[in-house]
Amino acid sequence: MVTKIYEGEKLRMAIESEKIKELIKESIPDAEVTIEDLKGDGDHYAAIISSREFQDLSRVQQHQLVYKALGNRMGNELHALSIQTKTPETTE
Amino acid sequence: MNENNAALGKIKEYVEGNNVVLFMKGTPDFPQCGFSSAISQTLKNLGVDFSAINVLEDDMLRQGIKDFTDWPTIPQLFIKGEFVGGCDIVREMAEKGELQSLLKEKGVNCGSEASENKTQ
User: What total number of domains does chain A contain?
Assistant: First the structure.
C-alpha cells in the first residue's frame, strides 16, 4: 500500500522534472539541466542549469531567464524550486 | 493602479532608506517559510544588521515586491538599494564569500564591528 503511493509519487515527480526541463530548454536551447528532488517529496526540487547564454549576465539576470522560461509557474505550482545557474566554463 | 503605485513607493522607501533590507514571509524570529528562515539565518550568522519586512502582513507589498524586481519569489534581499537576489543566490554568495565582500564593498558593517557602532 505504502509502496504503491510512493511509486505513484515517484512517477509524478519524474513527469514534473521532465516538464521543468522541457520548459527551460524551450527558451534556453543549449541549456544542460539537472533536476534533483531534494526531499524525495516531489515538491522541493533543485535545478542546476548550465548555458552559454548566462555569460556576462549577473546572477539575478541568469535566474530571471530561467524564471521567464518557467512562465508563471514559479512561485505558484513550483513554489520550492531552488535554482543554480552556471556557464559551461564554470561547470566542474 | 493607485494602490499599486503606493506599494511600489513604499518599497522604494524601504529599500533606499535602509542599508540591508529583507522582504520575507514572517519575521526573523518567527519565519513562516523555510527559504525566508534560511536567508535571515545567513544574515544573522554574518552579524549583519538588517531590516526585515514581513510581506504576509500586507498583500500589496507581497505582490508589489515581485513587480518591483521582476522576481517571482520571496524572500528578496536588498543591499544599499540594490536587489541582490533570493534565497539561492544569497546562499551561493555566502558560501563563496561573495556576500561578505559585497557588504564590505558597500560599507555595511558585519559582526562585532556592527555591535560596536550600535553602542555609540
Answer: 1
